[in-house]
Design goal:
Oligomer: single chain
Order of helices and strands: EHEEEHHHEEHEEHEEEEEHEEEEEEEE
Radius of gyration: 20 Å
Strand content: 35-45%
Helix content: 10-25%
Distance between the termini: 28 Å
Structural class: mainly beta
Number of helices: 7
Length: 323
């Protein structure tokens, strides 16, 4: 007999990176003493990095096993028909102590053909940024393939990239095919399609402890660029309190911003699971089954079959994500 589904927490999957730092531990109490902790994968079914439930009767089960056992009860009917036993999203917190590589991601068609993977459209919500920290998103002028290749060859790529100085709350939508990089000093939440496919085009001539440069992917990246994109990557959104404020809605996910100082009743009419990422404060999430609290830097997944619940706090900010 199957156990009853309830709001699920997962063990963070922690990733050291050459550009990582210590903020994920300092700010969010992630269990690591590494000085190069770059990512905390909060919800994942990427092969070899599958999330494990950390709370309740299903503690110790993998998210992959839950997908196979519960199907549409977890995902929702439309998502089960669309994705089967593949979870469509990868949820992360990222700390960049140093600049990440300049990169882009393939779309669904290219990723399927080359890597048997989803493509990678993603979004960023800045949770903290050091003074003068920036993100690279897109180009600072209209660029074609020939101009891009010329700058790449001349090692002058940064001359044509768009640098944005950022602060807490700034939000960016990164479609597949758009060049981008997280800059040093930025701590952010990332919501993306389930994919670990990245095409690195420039890595600041950086070397590891053995003196080796990381692999670049310029030979295959050039076909993944979309040079016709508009500069519409900055996301404006309402911050009305105690309400779900639309941030991003695309074929791959919808994300809303919720700032709370009291109680908000939610009715899930989306035929989807709902993920809550706490980006500030702490929030109590109560269903008829359980009451959970998530604090800044924590994540909770509410299965699709749970339709009614409430959010309550004196102060908290959430990203609300569904497909």
């Amino acid at each position: 007999m199957k156990k009853l589904l309830y709001p699920l927490k997962f063990q963070p999957i922690l990733k050291d990176k050459i550009w990582g730092g210590e903020k994920l531990n300092q700010y969010f109490n992630k269990a690591s003493d590494s000085k190069e902790l770059g990512e905390s994968w909060e919800i994942s079914t990427v092969p070899e990095d599958v999330s494990i439930v950390s709370n309740g009767d299903l503690k110790g089960e993998t998210l992959q096993k839950l997908l196979e056992d519960y199907k549409s009860e977890l995902l929702g009917d439309k998502n089960w028909k669309r994705f089967g036993n593949q979870f469509p999203l990868l949820i992360k917190f990222i700390d960049a102590k140093e600049d990440l590589s300049i990169q882009l991601h393939p779309n669904d068609e290219l990723a399927k053909e080359r890597h048997n993977s989803f493509g990678k459209t993603e979004m960023w919500y800045v949770m903290q940024a050091d003074k003068d920290a920036n993100l690279i998103v897109g180009f600072n002028q209209q660029i074609d393939k020939e101009t891009y290749l010329k700058h790449l060859e001349n090692k002058s790529l940064t001359e044509i990239l768009n640098f944005d100085k950022v602060k807490e709350g700034d939000t960016y939508f990164i479609e597949s095919g758009r060049v981008h990089a997280i800059g040093a000093g930025v701590l952010l939440a990332e919501i993306q399609q389930t994919s670990d496919v990245t095409y690195r085009v420039y890595d600041w001539d950086r070397v590891d402890t053995n003196g080796n440069e990381r692999e670049l992917h310029n030979d295959i990246a050039i076909d993944a660029f979309d040079f016709n994109m508009k500069n519409d990557f900055r996301v404006g959104y309402s911050t009305k309190k105690n309400a779900s404020n639309k941030m991003v809605s695309c074929p791959f996910f919808t994300t809303n911003f919720i700032e709370l100082d009291s109680e908000l009743k939610i009715q899930n009419t989306h035929d989807s699971f709902i993920i809550y990422m706490c980006v500030d404060g702490d929030v109590e999430i109560s269903t008829t089954i359980s009451t959970d609290i998530i604090s800044k830097g924590e994540t909770l997944l509410i299965p699709a079959q749970i339709k009614d619940y409430r959010l309550k706090t004196k102060y908290g900010k959430l990203l609300e994500v569904y497909v």
